[in-house]
Amino acid sequence: MERIKLIINPSSGRQAVETRVDYLCKLLLDDGYTLGKYYTQKKDDAVNETIKTCSSGEWDTIIACGGDGTINEVATGIAKSTNKLPVAILQSGTVNDFANYMNMPSKIPDFFKMIKNRHIVEIDLGKVNNKYFVNVAAGGLLTDVGFQVPIEAKALLGRMAYYFEGLRTLILQGIEPIHLSFESEEYTKEEDVLLFVVSNSASIGGFKKLAPDADVLDGLLDVLIIKNSDIPELANIFFNVLKGDHINHPNVVYFKTKNILIRAKKNITIDIDGEAGGRLPANFKVIPSGMKIIVNK
After folding, report:
1. What are this entry's molecular-function GO terms (predicted)?
2. Beta-strand (E) ranges in the chain?
3. Spatial separation of the C-alpha atoms in residues 185 and 91, rounded to whole Å
4. CA 125, chain centre distance (Å)
5. Which fold has domain 3-117?
6. Which helix or strand (DSSP H or E) is residue 102 part of?
7. CATH of segment(s) 131-287
8. 252 and 226 in contact (C-beta within 8 Å)?
9. Distance CA 90, CA 149 (A)
10. Contact 219, 290 (CB under 8 A)
């Protein structure tokens, strides 16, 4: 019978994590699966455990239990492994943009059925310098909110913790453009911008259509640039994000690419799947079919 390693972030999301994991394990064990559980304690634990699991030859599947940050670490471990085991995502974190985009079941019985059916697709990954991302890499306005929020606030308040931190950041810092240069086959220019996003999927920061044409199967990354805008223009752009129409705004640049180099004269931090991921300059490129994911048919 199939052997499954669960890699679990115990601090991810609310207190129901353990209950959900126990329920899933009971269903799997009763059906004859062999299970192993690993609980992360610090940064990069999930990366190292994924590499170890893939290289051991003792496991057939990984279930990653956590939010976008945990999924990023598992994806990084997969990218660094020769034997790329398929991964199922059991969402339990504060922000689950990628799991929601991939339509991962949130109910345990439905998740169990997905594991049983074992329908696998090969999705693209993104790479920025020497780091990987499964969902998004970004810089500029509010992109540091994810790693400014304390772990305790994430667990207690959920997504509201991010909204409170975003509001606090706007009040304290205001809106200040950054001067960047972009170099790709599709777009080469210097701009004063408020935000840039290099995305693998369409769902980012709770907005399901921020990169409306993004597809994890197309072998391309989607680039969204919001140029310097005043408050009314910015409000109009973000209002239209709900419908995916913001890409038609004159202050928005949107295109697909396999590779893009972004430079800055200032120290600009890059957010990678909700965590701090280094600084510009950075080269962003797609890794086609870089990861196997178990999904609903």
Report:
1. ATP binding; ATP-dependent diacylglycerol kinase activity; metal ion binding
2. 3-8, 34-39, 61-66, 87-91, 119-128, 131-133, 136-140, 178-183, 188-199, 221-227, 252-257, 259-264, 269-272, 275-279, 282-295
3. 36
4. 10
5. Rossmann fold (3.40.50)
6. none
7. 2.60.200.40
8. yes
9. 22
10. no
- The yes-or-no answer on residue 152 being catalytic is no
Contacts of residue 53, defined as CB under 8 A and 6 or more positions apart, other chains included, come to: 5, 7, 38, 59, 62, 77, 85
pLDDT means per 10 residues, the chain with 297 residues, are 93 72 96 96 96 97 92 97 97 78 92 96 96 92 47 42 42 71 96 92 80 95 93 83 89 97 91 87 97 94
In the chain, where the domains are located = 3-117, 131-287
DSSP state of 83: S
Q: Hey, CA dihedral for 137, 125, 71, 295, is it positive or negative?
A: positive
Q: Which two tokens stand for residue 127?
A: 């790479």
In the block, tokens 């308040």 appear at 157
Token pair for residue 196? 């840039």
The token pair that represents 38 in the structure block: 């690993």
Which tokens in the block code for residue 247? 């890409």
